[in-house]
Amino acid sequence: MTKISGPIGIFDSGYGGLTILEQIRKELPEYDYLYLGDNARTPYGTRSFDVVYRFTLQCVEYLFRQGCQLVILACNTASAKALRTIQQNDLNKIDPTRRVLGVIRPTVEEVVKFTKTKHIGLLATSGTVLSDSYPLEIHKIDPDIVVSSEACPLWVPLIENNEHLNEGADYFVKKYVSGLMSKDSQIDSIILGCTHYPLLSDKITRELPHGVKIISQGEIVARSLSDYLHRHPEMEEKCSRNATCRYLTTENPGKFSSSASIFLAEEIRAEHVEVSE
Ligand code: DGL
Is residue 103 within 8 Å of residue 137, measured between CB atoms? Predict the structure, then answer.
């Protein structure tokens, strides 16, 4: 019998998942990866539940057709609005042996261990904030934790236009960080609940009161995936190991390859794909 195996699929609405992929490849360099950015339909952060779910499902099914047995939704918005329905309703119909994992649960498991004051701050897209996914997941583990959230709708466009390191970005960093901290002065841990935001982490840190720490989602997701593969040898066997990485985009591949340099240290060459059959 031929052994089924394929690359690990990493999905994002666009470029942001590259920050997660980079950490995953550092932690688990031996596996093959297939990155898919739905750049033609980004941003997801301002879209409704139904639209994010439909787009995410199409992309997951596309990655499955490319042979991925395991797909990571490296996008907070997709994890917030589509993951549960895909896991509970769609996987059974598509192929119950495949798996789709998100970024919210692993992040939450770490942050609840990390906070001393039990007051946590969330900076994320409007979609992720409105979904309430972070507070809901946090309260499943510890109902006494207080979670305050601030949507930061201008950060993704600043980063995608490569303006995030310029002075003009400082105003919007200060605006959202002080907006969050004014809601609860006891916050000691901040979740950057959007894959783009690590690119602003130096500026965010500068605006935070002394002692308030940022949780690094990329590293957490990478460690959690490593742990998952240890605990699930039946899935680990299905993840091929030739240390390759391909990049797919639903938009212009030349634009993706050049903009990817904002997020990644290495040069890449992306390929264009259509995700709907
Ligand atoms: N990748 C998305 C997230 O992590 C942000 C970009 C978007 O709005 O599509 O929430």
Answer: no
Residues 98 and 234 in one domain: yes
Residue 277: its pLDDT value, please?
A: 63
Within a domain: residue 2?
Answer: no
pLDDT of residue 3: 76
Q: Would you say residue 3 lies in a domain?
A: no
Residues 230 and 213 in one domain: no
Q: Is the same domain home to 85 and 108?
A: no
- Same domain for 114 and 207, yes or no, is yes
Pocket test for ligand 1, best of 51, 107, 196 (most atoms within 8 A of CB): 196
Q: Are 215 and 192 in contact (CB under 8 A)?
A: yes
* Nearest protein CA to atom 1 of ligand 1, as residue: 75
Q: CATH number for the domain including 61?
A: 3.40.50.1860
Cα(6)–Cα(92) distance, rounded to whole angstroms? 19
Domain with 249, as residue range(s), is: 8-102+219-272
Which residue's CA is minimally distant from atom 8 of ligand 1?
A: 45
pLDDT averaged over 10-residue windows placed end to end, the chain, 277 residues: 87 96 97 98 92 98 98 96 97 97 97 97 94 96 98 94 94 98 98 95 96 94 98 98 98 96 93 90
Which long-range contacts link 224-233 to residues 24+ away (Cβ below 8 Å)? 224/106, 224/109, 225/8, 225/24, 225/27, 225/28, 225/72, 225/101, 226/27, 226/28, 228/101, 229/28, 232/99
Angle at 130 between CA 200 and CA 44, to 5 degrees: 60
Residues with CB under 6 A from ligand 1: 12-14, 16, 42-45, 75-77, 125, 128, 156, 194-196
Q: Is 277 part of any domain?
A: no
Distance of CA 53 to the CA centre of its chain: 15
- Which of residues 180, 196, 217 is at a domain's end? 217
